[in-house]
Amino acid sequence: MNGLLLLTDRRQAARPLPEVIEAAVAGGARLVVLRERDLPRDERAALADRLRGLLAPAGGTLIVAGPDPLGGDAVQLSAAGPYPPPRLGLVGRSCHDATELGRLTTEDYVTVSPVFPTASKPGYGPPLGVAGLARLVRAAGRPVFALAGVSTAGQVAACRAAGAAGVAVMGAVMRAADPTALVRELSTALVCEPSAALSSAEVALR
Asked: Could you tell me which CATH number the domain at 3-205 has?
């Protein structure tokens, strides 16, 4: 499992959330995590249905943050629980350190954060950095998506060089004037050759 995992945040979105997601899908996004946990369940379920409709033609998957899949078969859970995770088609979990990774059981993937400083959550951290990410990738035992502050191809390459299967992006895409172009740029960096990724990673770390 690899690629770009896109997390939603309608408050940061430069245009209505479904329009941002539609543009991101056009750029290659295939995994979208619906957050918006403050919405009433019926509104959130309706939004989930709408986003699934945008992803389905491209073969994409909507993952719902929290244990309720809102009629789907994919969730991303917090580090706090529940444990054990529900039996669904795809289950991810948000983790931040080795202790949280040590609680994993049957989860299919994890996000690890914060990797870089992030405008979405100022003061969130301290950032793990690429070296910290690499340590947690080795401990995870499953695909890791590097989360927080990822907004450039160089950062993507650095995360890939650290062993991450992919990156998780939120604010950069939500705020982008052209989500299609940004997702395409980040997705292209994900599939470059390892030697090129290492070269780009060195640039990103200078």
From this structure: 3.20.20.70
Phi then psi dihedrals of residue 62, to 5 deg: -95, 125
The torsion of the CA quartet 28, 172, 157, 126, rounded to 10 degrees, works out to: -140
CB 63, CB 34: distance < 8 Å: yes
- Rounded to whole angstroms, the Cα distance separating 36 from 45 reads 11
Helical (H) or strand (E) element with 61:
strand 61-65
Q: Domain ranges in the chain?
A: 3-205
Question: What pTM value is reported for the model?
Answer: 0.90
Euclidean distance between the first and final Cα of the chain, in Å?
29
Q: How confident is the model at residue 39 (pLDDT cuts 50, 70, 90)?
A: very high
